[in-house]
Design a protein that fits this description.
The protein is of the alpha+beta class. It is built from four helices and twelve strands.
Length: 204
C-alpha cells in the first residue's frame, strides 16, 4: 500500500509571502490559495515589475519543466567565504552571511503577517523566525529569472538563473557583504525529480 504526499498552501497570511515560499515544506506543491490578499509572489527586480498574475505565470516556467521540484528547498554552504545558501528551486536563492544550521534555514522567515495582520508566533499554525530589523543582517535574495530543461550539454540537469532582488539592500550593505554584494546572478543546476518522490510506502 502507498500514499501520496501533497503540499497545499492555503495562504491565510497578508503581505510578502516570499519567506514562506522560500522554505516550503518537503512535499510536492499542489495549490496556492488567497493570492488576492498577498503581494505578487515575485518581488521587483532591476528589469521586471511583477503583477500578481504575471508572477504566477513566471513561476509556471519552472513548474512546466518539473512540477515535483518546484519550491523544494536545498541547503548548502561556502566554507571559504562563510555563507549559507538556501535554494527554493524555481523560486529563490537566499544567502546568509555566516553558517546557519539546516534546522533554522527550514523555518520560514516572517516577511508576512497573519490573517489578523499580526506578527506574533502564536498567530501562525507553523514555525516562523523573525526577519531581522537590521537590513544588513537579512539574507541576500535572488529570484528566478529563467529556467531550462535538461539537455545533453547540461549533463542531463535542469538549469536555473536567479537574479538579485532590487530592494536597496546593496546601497546600505554592499561593503559588509563583500564579495557576494558584487554578484548579480546565481546559476543553479539540479536533477529532475525521481518518480519515487511522489510515493511513500506505508509500513506496518
Amino acid at each position: 500500500m502507498s500514499c501520496v504526499v501533497v503540499g497545499i498552501l492555503q495562504f491565510d497570511i497578508h503581505g510578502d509571502a516570499s519567506g514562506l515560499l522560500s522554505a516550503h515544506p518537503v512535499a510536492p506543491l499542489v495549490s496556492l490559495h488567497h493570492l488576492d490578499l498577498i503581494s505578487p509572489i515575485f518581488p521587483n527586480t532591476q528589469t521586471i515589475n511583477y503583477t500578481r498574475m504575471g508572477a504566477l505565470k513566471h513561476l509556471m516556467m519552472a513548474t512546466e519543466i518539473d512540477p515535483g521540484s518546484i519550491l523544494q528547498q536545498s541547503i548548502c554552504y561556502d566554507k571559504r567565504h562563510h555563507w549559507s545558501f538556501s535554494v527554493s528551486w524555481g523560486y529563490s536563492v537566499q544567502v546568509h552571511k555566516g553558517f546557519i544550521t539546516p534546522r533554522e534555514l527550514e523555518i520560514p522567515i516572517k516577511t508576512f503577517t497573519s490573517w489578523h495582520r499580526e506578527t506574533s508566533k502564536v498567530e501562525f499554525p507553523f514555525n516562523t523566525r523573525d526577519n531581522p530589523d537590521d537590513l544588513c543582517s537579512r539574507p541576500m535574495r535572488f529570484f528566478m529569472e529563467s529556467v531550462k530543461a535538461p539537455t545533453t550539454d547540461s549533463g542531463g540537469l535542469m538549469q536555473g538563473i536567479y537574479v538579485r532582488e532590487n530592494n536597496g539592500h546593496m546601497d546600505k550593505c554592499g561593503e559588509k557583504l563583500l564579495p557576494l554584494s558584487v554578484v548579480e546572478k546565481i546559476h543553479i543546476k539540479r536533477e529532475l525529480t525521481d518518480d519515487s518522490w511522489y510515493q511513500v510506502k506505508n509500513h506496518p
